[in-house]
């Protein structure tokens, strides 16, 4: 990832049962900006999905959005230490030709991520793919290390029984065209192309070439959770300090005996990180994380509607749901830039103890609110001394034991 600054800081808190200062140090990273290109044919749904994810629009509200003229440049803050320099590029043919000729170096230099949107209902697939090939060629020329996410959009317009097959066919075609574009830029020899061949796709008449580029494809629609799945994957790869976040989240999950924990970005409610116990891993619903993003975003809209607050403001601080003897769940404001959702076995004492422990653990995640700045600090009762205000060198079980002593019994 480009444009990174690193500062040394103590490692994540050790797992439950360990004690003493951490033995190793982790590099905390501070990202200045990440340039993200959002491209695709005019009317493919680029601005609609951007407005839903980052501006809290409802899907039905996007109908009043007009076509993007040239480049709509916005700076989207995500967490406290990541800024997305988002370029929403108009998809009219005249604009596309301009991007690929006069503005080629300006548009495609220093790109961290390209998000390309295909309209599955387009009647001119060949022209769409030709434009895509030209864009990939320009990206390879100026930003060889950029990641590419291709969204096959408006899948709600395809009959449910054929959606998987339609997506597989289009994805295979996009992969082949991507590989061809890369091969053209590299002036690859025929024998080199032969070495890159993959097994023939069952629905294609010719073998596909493996693209020499970091490419991921998603089937999306603004009317369901598929949009959150795609964008959460995009953001996940850009979040700095992800390893530290995951380690901290795992320590917290073990300490409070949770089944699953989700960490959401405050405004978009995209999943930043998640953790599951062995019991949580047995959950058969693979899309449950995106569903929770969708549910909480809808709840936020409902609160906004009945309180009259702006859609980007905070509408709630706590959300609780108890399903009898099946499970309990709560979502609460965690740090300045995040919400946390905890799912756990039933039990009032366990539930109250977990809420108190989550409140106590906020200090572990202070680095999510801004760049890490090493400084000496200590926290009473933390079980250790911090050499940075962002990371605790104590045991998670210290919090758990202290709070559970005060928790009410069943």
Write a brief structural summary.
By secondary structure, this protein is of the alpha/beta class.
Please indicate the count of domains: 2
Query: Architecture of the largest domain, according to CATH?
Result: 3-Layer(aba) Sandwich
N to C succession of SSEs: EEEHEEHHEHEHHEHHEEHHEEEHEEH
Q: Calculate Rg over CA atoms.
A: 23 Å
Summed over residues and divided by their number, the pLDDT gives a mean of: 76
Strand order of the largest sheet: 4-5-3-6-7-8
User: Mind describing the biggest β-sheet?
Assistant: 6 strands, mixed
Strand portion, in percent? 15-25%
Low-confidence segments, given as residue ranges, are: 1-26, 188-210, 372-410
Q: Would you give the CATH topology of the largest domain?
A: Rossmann fold
| CATH class division of the largest domain | Alpha Beta
Query: What count of helical segments does DSSP give?
Result: 12
Global structural class? alpha/beta
Helical residue percent? 25-40%
Task: Summarize the topology.
Blueprint: E1 4-10, E2 25-31, E3 34-40, H1 46-54, E4 71-78, E5 82-89, H2 93-100, H3 104-108, E6 113-119, H4 125-142, E7 147-153, H5 163-186, H6 190-195, E8 214-219, H7 226-236, H8 242-256, E9 260-265, E10 271-276, H9 278-281, H10 288-307, E11 318-323, E12 327-333, E13 338-344, H11 348-360, E14 377-378, E15 385-386, H12 396-406
Parallel strand pairs: 3-5, 3-6, 6-7, 7-8
Antiparallel strand pairs: 1-2, 4-5, 9-10, 9-13, 11-12, 12-13, 14-15
């Amino acid at each position: 990832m480009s444009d990174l600054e690193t500062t040394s800081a103590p490692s994540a808190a050790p797992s439950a049962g360990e004690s003493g200062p951490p033995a190793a140090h982790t590099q905390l990273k501070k990202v200045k900006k990440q340039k993200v290109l959002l491209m695709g044919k005019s009317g493919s749904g680029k601005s609609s999905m951007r407005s839903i994810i980052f501006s809290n629009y409802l899907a039905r509200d996007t109908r009043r959005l007009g076509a993007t003229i040239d480049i709509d440049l916005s700076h989207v803050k995500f967490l406290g230490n990541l800024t997305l320099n988002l370029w929403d590029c108009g998809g009219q043919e005249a604009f596309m030709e301009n991007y690929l000729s006069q503005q080629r170096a300006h548009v495609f230099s220093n790109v961290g991520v390209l998000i390309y949107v295909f309209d599955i209902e387009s009647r001119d697939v060949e022209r769409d793919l030709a434009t895509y090939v030209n864009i990939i060629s320009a990206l390879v020329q100026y930003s060889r290390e950029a990641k590419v996410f291709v969204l096959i959009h408006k899948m709600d317009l395809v009959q449910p029984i054929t959606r998987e097959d339609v997506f597989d066919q289009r994805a295979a075609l996009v992969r082949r065209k991507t590989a061809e574009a890369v091969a053209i830029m590299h002036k690859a020899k025929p024998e080199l192309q032969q070495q890159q061949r993959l097994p023939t796709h069952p629905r294609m008449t010719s073998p596909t070439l493996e693209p020499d580029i970091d490419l991921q494809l998603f089937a999306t629609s603004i009317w369901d959770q598929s949009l959150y799945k795609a964008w959460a994957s995009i953001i996940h790869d850009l979040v700095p300090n992800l390893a530290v976040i995951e380690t901290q989240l795992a320590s917290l999950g073990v300490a409070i005996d949770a089944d699953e924990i989700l960490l959401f970005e405050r405004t978009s409610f995209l999943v930043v990180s998640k953790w599951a116990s062995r019991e949580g891993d047995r959950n058969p619903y693979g899309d449950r994380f995106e569903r929770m993003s969708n549910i909480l975003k809808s709840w936020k809209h409902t609160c906004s509607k009945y309180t009259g607050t702006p859609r980007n403001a905070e509408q709630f601080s706590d959300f609780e749901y108890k399903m009898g003897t099946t499970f309990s769940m709560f979502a609460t404001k965690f740090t300045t830039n995040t919400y946390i959702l905890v799912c756990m076995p039933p039990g009032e004492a366990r539930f109250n103890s977990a809420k108190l422990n989550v409140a106590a653990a906020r200090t572990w995640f202070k680095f999510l609110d801004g760049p890490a700045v090493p400084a000496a600090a200590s926290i009473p009762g933390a079980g250790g001394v911090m050499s940075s205000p962002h990371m605790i060198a104590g045991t998670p079980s210290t919090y758990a034991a202290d709070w559970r002593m005060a928790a009410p019994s069943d």
